[in-house]
Structures are given as structure tokens and as C-alpha cells.
Amino acid sequence: MRKFRNKARSTGSLKADHRIANHLAMLSSYVRLKGIGLKRQDSPLEFMEVSLLLNAISAHIQAVSDLQRILTGSGSEDGVQLGDLLDKICTTLRSGIADDVIFTETYAPDCALKFDHVLPVAQIFTEIVTNALKYGHRAGAVRRIGIACRKDISDSILIMVSDNGPGLGSTGTSQTANGLGTRLVKALSAQIGSSIDYSSSEIGVTATLTLASAGFVFDQTLNEDESHTSFSRNG
To answer: For the chain, which residues make up each domain, given as ranges?
Structure first.
């Protein structure tokens, strides 16, 4: 019995190490891609852009750290509570930026995220929120960012980010339509078998990430030339 337990513990440790190694490799690719994007900037970054970039990387490192602690601690396969993850990212992103941003967060308690999806979802969410902070506001108005996650009738998890900006197609947002951040979001979404949709109106833009119920797991890092990814299905 003891030998069986030791073998089970060893197998669980190897799985945890593999997951963390995958996440760290993916994070490394993310940072390199961001560096490539900075080299292509036509103008110097503003303070807020630098702060958001550094805070985003900090949030991703914290996500991997939290995941490692969960995997090596409980050994549970129940996943990570999405609300906890998103709340920590929002707290980190808010640090060091202007005070004229109001976050409204609503998280359903039954949204568990697969361990293998933690970093891809964190990166997608961070890109969407960062874009909303940069472009989703009107001159002279207080910026309002709404964050929510819940399940739909098909049991898929929805993550929604809304802003009170001028909408898609306006100055700024139109320039980012084919930017690195947008390509990253699309590539990462495809990698975990999810979909990203945007709706625009006179009161702002809402981005909705729908996480697939099927077990997609990332297996390779982002490609630095084309920002493409690979994915595989469990089972």
C-alpha cells in the first residue's frame, strides 16, 4: 500500500512539474512577443502603458506561483476558482495606474478553471482588460470597467469585460484591430478551444470569452513570428 501511495504521489508530482514547466515556457514566449512588439512601436510608451505591461507580467507570474502552490499542496484535480484568479489580476492591473478607473466585478461561485487553462486564460483576460483601460474611455469621463464570469445554459463558462468607451472603429481601437495583443488573444483562444466575441454600442464595448467544455490542453508555446499556437485534446 505504501509503495502504491508513493507511486501515486510521484505521478502527481510529475504531472504538476509538467504543467508548471508548460506554463513557464508559455510565459517566456509571451514576454518575448511583448518585447518584439515594443521594438515595433512608432512612439515611446506612455507611463500607463509601461505600468500595465509590467503589472500584466507580474499577474502572470503570480498565477503560475499560485498554481504551483495548489498542485504541490492539495494534489486536487478540481481546478482553480476563476473568480479568485480574475480578482487577483484586476488588483494587480489597478496598481500604479490612474485613480479615475472604476472596476465592477461580479463572479459566479461555480466557475472552476482547468489547471492547464490557468495561464492562457490569465493572458487573454489581461490583454482584454489592458486594451479596455487604454482605449475604452471617453475624454473627460471616468473610466468604468465591468468584469463578470458565469456559466451559460450549456454549462460553458463566460468571461465578460465591458468598458464605457466610444466603441469599436474609433481612433485607437481601430489601430489595434490587427495588433499584437489582438493576435495573441485570438491565438490563445484557439489554443484552449475557446472563442472570443466583441459587441459594440454607443455605451461601449463588451468582450466575451467563452471557454469550451471540452478538455483542450496547450502543449506548445507561442510562435514568435506569427503568434500562432498549437493545442491538443485530452483523451
So the answer is: 2-233
Nearest alpha-carbon partner for 136 in 70, 63, 199: 199
- Cα-to-chain-centroid distance, residue 176: 18
pLDDT (0 to 100) of residue 227: 42
Give the dihedral of Cα atoms 83, 76, 121, 22; nearest 10 deg: 150
Q: How far apart are CA 191 and CA 216, in angstroms?
A: 8
Rounded Cα gap, residues 46 and 172, in angstroms: 14
Domain 2-233 has CATH 1.10.10.10: no
Does the reported pTM lie above 0.85? no
* Nearest partner of 88 among 42, 132, 143, 126, judged by Cα: 126
Instruction: For residues 116 and 80, give the distance between their C-alpha atoms in angstroms, rounded to a whole number.
Output: 10
Return the DSSP state at 94. Answer: H
DSSP 8-state code for residue 213:
S
Which tens digit of pLDDT belongs to each residue from 111-150? 998 888 988 999 999 999 988 888 877 777 888 899 999 9
Pairing assessment for the beta strands 112-113 and 80-81 based on DSSP bridges: antiparallel
